[in-house]
Amino acid sequence: MMMNKKTGKTGTSKVQKKADNSSKAKKAGNSLKTKKADFSLKTKKSGSVSAKIKSDKKNSDVIAKAAKRCKVSSKCGGCQFIDMPYKKQLKVKHDRLEELIGKYCEVGEFIGMEDPDHYRCKVHAVFTHDRKGNPLSGIYQEGSHKVVPVDACLLEDKKADDIIATIRGMLRSFKIKTYDEDYGQGLLRHVLIRVGKNSGQIMVILILTSPILPSKNNFVKALLKAHPEITTIVLNVNDKHTSMILGEQEKVLYGKGYITDTVCGMEFKISPKSFYQVNPVQTEKMYSKAIELAHLDGTEEALDCYSGVGTIGIIASPHVKHVTSVEINADAVKDAIWNAKNNGIKNVTFYKNDATRFMQQMADSGDKADVVFMDPPRSGATEEFLSSLFVLGPKKVVYISCGPDSLARDLGIFTKNGYRVTDCVPVDMFCHTRSIETIVLLKRADIK
Ligand SMILES: C[S@@+](CC[C@H](N)C(=O)[O-])C[C@H]1O[C@@H](n2cnc3c(N)ncnc32)[C@H](O)[C@@H]1O
């Protein structure tokens, strides 16, 4: 295992805001209107989507009940489908995928959740105050920086919400001022909680404008007294006028400064800035399906591109000859190296690099790969990444996508370059929202 420090670029560690106000997202919401569905979707100026079922009397009763489920759903806009029965949510998403990629292959049945509530193991609360100075915590209203106060969210881990409420309740007695975005004043900006659903470990990250937390030891003591289940507390400093949640500087206040969790029988270390899938129940199903689709026989030279903390490559490693993993985030690569070692995996090599640049270097060096796992961000792969991949000429590509629009675009490029789509399995990673996760298997045209 090694990391290529010479060719590695300095990575930017980013945690995206929960609110997604991109025009792309708005477009996606609009294009969810589908003839086949018996409901209509309306995209508001903010980009949030409201769904109304037209015909079914039974459904309207369910909706009436569901509307009571979340009092702030209309203000928050994060769960566009919260008022829609779960089966219908899957149907809307399935129809959307068919519209986008149905011309390339049959869209398989959604792998849904038995219990689609409280699945998020990464919970973010933004802190501010009302006009009287009372601390508030909640979620950015979709498409804005207005904070919608939230005590409990149907997507979020319940324990994480309890901890956030406790922290909010402690602020006055510790004289901790919440941040005011307009004036750039105050100390506490955000709290980020990461929960290892299988390990039971909990990391609390306090994002402050300064590295000095008043009465730090007493604050930690009081928080642990209220929540002995917390396994680590990290102070992160973000003093920039930015919409990024996390800053660069970190200080461990309690515990190890990271958590671990298990998925597919392997243990993974997760640091504050590393990417880790937000829905652990579905992640297990998604990784298993991705590896099953690849039909590995133990002889393959595999590539894991956009590898995060190394999960897919490490889980696939017992089934292939060797895996090469590439990821841009330095902290995630460090975690990945730790993860391979901790799981006794010796046939994975990790590189910290931009995936496009790395693929170009591989193509230029005449390297080959038998199978490529790729799991890019929502924007998908770059054209240069794909051109280099075609030079490497893998027999199979397992493309995991959280952006159906970019997936459709990239599948168009694949099919023009000698690949066909043989399988498409959507996995509901983001229940109650319009977001769609899809696993697609592509085969080189000459491969059965
Ligand atoms: C959707 S996540 C997938 C991570 C991992 N496969 C998993 O399942 O946890 C995408 C990953 O791509 C990384 N990334 C983003 N841009 C990249 C780039 N240009 N080159 C390499 N990695 C990148 C992110 O840091 C993130 O870890």
From TrEMBL:
<keyword id="KW-0489">Methyltransferase</keyword>
<feature type="region of interest" description="Disordered">
    <location>
        <begin position="1"/>
        <end position="46"/>
    </location>
</feature>
<dbReference type="GO" id="GO:0070475">
    <property type="term" value="P:rRNA base methylation"/>
</dbReference>
<feature type="binding site">
    <location>
        <position position="306"/>
    </location>
    <ligand>
        <name>S-adenosyl-L-methionine</name>
    </ligand>
</feature>
<feature type="binding site">
    <location>
        <position position="277"/>
    </location>
    <ligand>
        <name>S-adenosyl-L-methionine</name>
    </ligand>
</feature>
<dbReference type="InterPro" id="IPR030390">
    <property type="entry name" value="MeTrfase_TrmA_AS"/>
</dbReference>
<feature type="binding site">
    <location>
        <position position="375"/>
    </location>
    <ligand>
        <name>S-adenosyl-L-methionine</name>
    </ligand>
</feature>
<keyword id="KW-0808">Transferase</keyword>
<comment type="similarity">
    <text>Belongs to the class I-like SAM-binding methyltransferase superfamily. RNA M5U methyltransferase family.</text>
</comment>
<feature type="binding site">
    <location>
        <position position="327"/>
    </location>
    <ligand>
        <name>S-adenosyl-L-methionine</name>
    </ligand>
</feature>
<dbReference type="InterPro" id="IPR029063">
    <property type="entry name" value="SAM-dependent_MTases_sf"/>
</dbReference>
<feature type="active site">
    <location>
        <position position="402"/>
    </location>
</feature>
<dbReference type="Pfam" id="PF05958">
    <property type="entry name" value="tRNA_U5-meth_tr"/>
</dbReference>
<protein>
    <submittedName>
        <fullName>23S rRNA (Uracil1939-C5)-methyltransferase</fullName>
    </submittedName>
</protein>
<feature type="active site" description="Nucleophile">
    <location>
        <position position="402"/>
    </location>
</feature>
<dbReference type="InterPro" id="IPR010280">
    <property type="entry name" value="U5_MeTrfase_fam"/>
</dbReference>
<dbReference type="GO" id="GO:0070041">
    <property type="term" value="F:rRNA (uridine-C5-)-methyltransferase activity"/>
</dbReference>
<keyword id="KW-0949">S-adenosyl-L-methionine</keyword>
